[in-house]
Amino acid sequence: MRYDFDTPVERRGTGCYKWDCDEMAADVIPMWVADMDFRVAEPIVDALRRRVEHGVFGYERVPDAYYEAIIEWFRRRHGWRIEREWIQYTTGVVPAMSAVIKALTKPGDKVLVQTPVYNCFFSSIKNNKCQVLRAPLCYTGATYKVDFAEFERIIAEEKPRLFLMCNPHNPAGRVWTREELMRMGEICLRHGVMVVADEIHCELVMPGHKFTPFGSLSAEMQSNCVAMNSSSKSFNTAGLQCANIICCDGEVRAKIDRALNDNEVCDVNPLGVEALMAAYNEGAEWIDELNAYLWENYKALKDYFARYMPGLRVSELEGTYLVWVNISATGLNADELTHRLLSEGRVLVNSGLMYSDGASEGQNFIRLNIACPRSQMMEGLARIRSVVDRI
Ligand SMILES: Cc1ncc(COP(=O)(O)O)c(C=O)c1O
User: Which domains does the chain have, with CATH numbers?
Assistant: First the structure.
């Protein structure tokens, strides 16, 4: 390995959410919010250093090279051909999602999600005065599947305007296969439902799996889709706030442009732009090594649970660095266990209830962030075990 993911980086006192939030006393280990404890790839640091040296940070006019970096990355890495005018930038995937929902719905419309799912899906839908429509994923005991008949029944009966899809899926850990995407996409086409694909985790894919951009499925699917993406999640630059919406339909884009302006999220900062260009132009090797490291972390975590906490079931991880663990054997619900892990074990995890908006799909799960040096992850696991042993 050329890159070092083992050496811890001190993040406390840098004003970072993950380590400096109120719950994070000096002795707590964080396994919660989705950013990584790794230093970013050197080309990104170099690009930022050069930009900072210039010393002037006025309003940004995004350069041509920005669009070229995105187009080339998706062509090379994911076999998806994007055209320049399809790309709209904004400050994050959540602001993108909110603007897309605002642009393509009327108050009261239904937006379909597959639960459990990333908590901001619920808030973005509700903040835009729409209704959350759930198509729960089917838990098999090790992973999640789509019940296609149920998915279609819900769409046919409830007539949502949009399907807000997550691929790779946070927190289920799935990377939807081409066949699954086609089937979901065909159902949406049949019923006139537009697909809004949150693909922010798309570079974080484990061995044996392949990310398929929804827009790359076919021309028809592409026309019925708005994709949202950023280099920020996988290259660990979330604080630099820069993301993209990709849509080939000019009329839909015009509506989204209006919503981005209404929401005042149509400008990005120069450092985010530099980071994205460096990531996409020079970061492929780093991402490959990162994924290899995350996979080793996941295997070590799985072994640890099998040996010391065999009653708790670790879900398969196909993508993301967020591991979804079934805790029903503890007899506690997710909030109760999360609370005890913090108060007794000094380890902060996410309660599964966050990902079902309080509904039952998340009550038997916790979500663990494993994007940290292995030694730190093992210490976090030992703390989880110390609490589970006492239950
Ligand atoms: C599925 C998903 N979408 C969006 C985000 C956040 O995106 P951003 O920070 O660009 O707003 C996250 C963060 O964890 C996420 O998991």
Answer: 17-41+284-390 (3.90.1150.10), 56-282 (3.40.640.10)
Helix 64-78 × helix 270-282 angle, to 10°:
30
Compute the distance between CA of residue 251 and CA of residue 194 in angstroms, rounded to an integer: 14
**pLDDT the model gives residue 258:** 98
Q: Residue 317 corresponds to which tokens in the numbers above?
A: 């991880």
d(C-alpha 225, C-alpha 169), whole Å: 17
Dihedral over Cα of 33, 372, 145, 211: its sign: positive
Q: List the structure tokens of 292.
A: 């290899």
- Is the entire prediction scored with pTM above 0.70? yes
Atom of ligand 1 nearest to the CA of 35: 14
Query: What is the CB-side half-sphere exposure of residue 55 using CA atoms within 13 A?
Result: 1
Residues 96-154: tens digit of each pLDDT: 999 999 999 999 999 999 999 999 999 999 999 999 999 999 999 999 999 999 999 99
User: Are residues 101 and 111 in contact, defined by beta-carbon separation less than 8 angstroms?
Assistant: yes
Q: Are 181 and 212 in contact (CB under 8 A)?
A: yes
Q: In this predicted structure, what is the pLDDT of residue 236?
A: 98
Angle at 108 (CA atoms; ends 102, 110), nearest 5 degrees:
80
* 310 CA from centroid of ligand 1 (Å): 31
Distance CA 236, CA 258 (A): 29
Q: Specify the pLDDT at position 146.
A: 98
Spans of the chain below 70 pLDDT: none
Please tell me if the CB atom of residue 34 comes closer than 6 angstroms to any atom of ligand 1.
yes
Q: What is the pLDDT of residue 238?
A: 97
Q: Which of 120, 167, 320 to mutate to test the pocket of ligand 1 (most atoms within 8 A of CB)?
A: 120
Q: Which two three-digit tokens encode residue 37? A: 């404890």
Q: What is the mean pLDDT of the chain?
A: 97
